[in-house]
Amino acid sequence: MARIIPADYGEVQWIAQLPGDTHTTEVTVGVALDGSPTASDVFDLYTDGGWQDLWHAIAVEQWTMVRGRCVIGDGTGSPPVVETIFADDGATGSDGITPNTAVLIKKSTGLGGRANRGRMYWPGVDEDSVAPTGALDSGFVSGVQVLADALIPALNVGPFIGYVILHTDNSTPTPITGFLVESTVATQRRRLPR
Question: Regarding beta strands 118-122 and 64-72, do their DSSP bridges make them parallel or antiparallel, or are they unpaired?
Fold first, then answer.
């Protein structure tokens, strides 16, 4: 079943990659829209909306953010997409942990239930910021949390008017009220077919 993004909403995707790797990593967040964003608006959201600062605080220099994309909801299964291509290297140390291990940032809505929460996996964290147990350095977590807290107040870019959780049942998206940086790294595993 294809997910249908309602009109006046969209999904922003930040796409990162390691040099020489054919696979990419996507960090996504739903957005409320007042108009149709352009590729320039997506780039401005990255640079002026706090996302670039977050990327620089998390990712090591080997990781590169290669593009930003916005899937614009139109209530159909074939929504329009705008994309901006760029190259923005991470800015922390030089030795990243394995690509399937990431900083987990939870999306908060203030409402209960699985449908009203989400998460983002940010790749490229520096090995020096992670203990053998998977715990992140407390100073690193605090610094990233300050930047995550700034995302909602910084949202005054182009037609982007709010962050939301998009739902697979095509119901009205739920507004995000905050982002919470977890103190332990998270891993993503591929789900293999049975």
Answer: unpaired
pLDDT (tens digit, 9 = 90+) per residue, 163-182? 999 998 878 999 999 999 99
| Helix H or strand E segment including 120 | strand 118-122
Higher pLDDT, 189 or 75: 75
d(CA 130, CA 108): 24
What span, in angstroms and rounded, lies between the C-alpha atoms of 150 and 180? 12
How far apart (Å, rounded) are the C-alpha atoms in residues 14 and 28?
6
What b/e string do you get for 45-70 counting C-beta neighbours within 10 Å, with b at 16 or more?
Answer: bbeebbbbbbbebbbbebbbbebbbb
Query: Is-contact 157 45, C-beta < 8 A?
Result: yes
- The pTM (predicted TM-score) of the whole model is 0.91
pLDDT of 115 reads: 81
Q: What is the mean pLDDT of residues 148-160?
A: 91
Alpha carbon 114 to its chain centroid, in Å, reads 19
